[in-house]
UniProtKB/TrEMBL annotation:
Residues 15-67 form the Histone acetyltransferase Rv0428c-like SH3 domain. It holds the Pfam family SH3_Rv0428c. It comes from Cellulomonas cellasea DSM 20118. This is Histone acetyltransferase Rv0428c-like SH3 domain-containing protein. InterPro entries: SH3_Rv0428c (IPR056934).
Length: 80
């Protein structure tokens, strides 16, 4: 754990603008048990986090967060 993290719930210490990856648990009706969300934190509150990905904002309830960590900035996109 890095400084400022709440034991067991590191996402509560994330700051808006931080790039993160979140592993979230999906419901039993889904084909897969987990999925990852990669992007920039745009909201953190008692309910969970919102991460803005390349496809748009994703709300992740705290009860579905299995793992999460801060990751380095995205590499610059290569010209086409």
């Amino acid at each position: 754990m890095s400084g400022g993290e709440t034991p067991g719930v590191p996402w509560r210490s994330w700051r808006v603008g931080t790039r993160v990856v979140v592993r979230r648990r999906l419901g039993p009706e889904e084909e897969h048990l987990y999925t990852d969300v990669l992007g920039e934190v745009t909201r953190v509150d008692d309910d969970g986090v919102q991460v803005t990905t390349r496809r748009g904002p994703v709300d992740v309830p705290g009860t579905e967060i299995v793992l999460g960590k801060v990751v380095p900035p995205a590499p610059p996109r290569r010209p086409r």
